[in-house]
Amino acid sequence: MNFTNIELFKNLSEWDFGGSYHDLHNDFDCIALRLESRILKLIFKERSEKPTMFSLDCENTELTRLDIEVAGLCGTLTLDNFHRGRFEAEGQLITENCGRGYFYLEFYEGPFMEFWCEQVSLNIIHNTSLEIA
Predict the structure, then answer these.
(1) Nearest to 104 by CA among 5, 1, 38, 6
(2) CB burial of residue 12 (10 Å; 0-12, 13-18, 19+)
(3) Would you say residue 133 has pLDDT above 70?
(4) Spatial CA neighbour of 57 closest among 3, 9, 112
(5) Is 51 exposed, middle or buried (0-12, 13-18, 19+ CB in 10 A)?
(6) Tell me: the pLDDT tens digits for 62-115?
(7) Contact (CB, 8 A) for 48 and 67
(8) How do residues 13-69 score in pLDDT, each as one tens digit?
(9) How many CB atoms within 10 Å of residue 86?
(10) Closest Cα partner for 30 from 5, 3, 55?
């Protein structure tokens, strides 16, 4: 979904995917974060007997802020807040820059990041034996 189609401050932790509802905050754990070739990938695994895995992909990403306390990281993270917002530059609130929107992503355990990105998509991972490390 192109950032221009994402409503400001809309909660992006809930998705209707293929006719079924998925709540990344309440039903999934974030088990990996990757930034490669300007694509930020968050890998989520469902908390169930037969877990579904999703990759939340943010394309053409430019990180502007990242706050992670490594000592507190072990196990999984719970997505708390993910939305498109505004960025303050030279006293002005802006919503887009160079064809990208500004996003805020926060985890319940404390880590957070802010970034510009062009597009956000949720993709099912069919190979549940995916190598995460």
Answers:
(1) 6
(2) buried
(3) no
(4) 3
(5) middle
(6) 999 998 876 666 778 999 999 999 998 889 999 999 999 999 999 998 899 999
(7) no
(8) 988 877 888 899 999 999 999 999 999 999 999 999 988 899 999 999 999 999 887
(9) 15
(10) 55
Radius of gyration of the chain (CA): 15
Q: Specify the residue for token string 């999934």.
A: 28
What the block records as the tokens of 74 is 């072990």
What is the reported pTM? 0.83
Distance CA 9, CA 79 (A): 15
- Quote the distance between the C-alpha of residue 9 and its chain's center: 14
